[in-house]
Amino acid sequence: RMCTRLRPETVTAICNLHRHTAIKSLDVEFIHKLSYLMDTVGPADYALRVVHLVRDPRALIDAKVKLDSNENFTMATLRTHAQKLCKNLLLNIKYAVSAPPWLKGRYTLLRYEDLATKPQQIAEQLYQFVGITIAPQVRRYIDRAYREPVVSYSGSSAQPETSSKNLSESVYKWRLRMPYSIVRMVETECYEVMNLLGYKVVDDLEELRTVSIPLID
């Protein structure tokens, strides 16, 4: 069932019970818009940290097509999406690298692919970044999340389907279904930011489909 909306006052009260608060946002188009948070008068130990999660643009475009399956995408509309996605991503990275005073020492960039394939190592790094000691319970949770099967129901069948919650597979699944022509288009439009983030372009369809060949530096 759908959860009811939380009132801002309720959220504030809950957050005030804890020393650290983590907020996941998909709506911050430009990082510089977060600077207003540092202008807010808060407690003496108030410290903002920004973890910028990025992903291979090819995988993001593939996910958009898969998510909006009812929309009739054309090469032109996908090109527009790719251009906007990578332009904004590049602007954000360049802004962060320029180290504006409010963001200096408060920003880290994280690739989804690294998180999915090295969860324990990345978790350790993130906890160090925010200045918290990682608890044994967190490590156990990560292990369970990556090992335990997920039971779900689909369609009209009452029989449960069991699948492995292996995030490492999500790193390359797009390579098995994305048309080569769209891959090449995204690589052309996003070459600068892909190169900056360590994502490799493919030479041909065979390399694209051969998932044992890594596309990440």
What are the main properties of this structure?
217 residues, mainly alpha, Rossmann fold, 11 helices
Low-confidence stretches: 152-164
Structural class: mainly alpha
Task: Work out the strand percent.
Answer: 5-15%
Q: Report the top-level CATH class.
A: Alpha Beta
Continuous helix count: 11
Element order, helices and strands? Answer: HEHHEHHHEEHHHHH
Can you tell me the number of structural domains? 1
Shape: globular
Examine the coordinates and then state which fold CATH places here, giving the name of the CATH topology. Rossmann fold
Give the terminus-to-terminus CA distance: 42 Å
What is the compact description of this entry?
The protein has helices at 8-15, 57-67, 75-97, 112-117, 119-130, 136-147, 167-170, 173-177, 180-189, 191-197, 205-209, and strands at 50-54, 107-111, 149-152, 161-164.
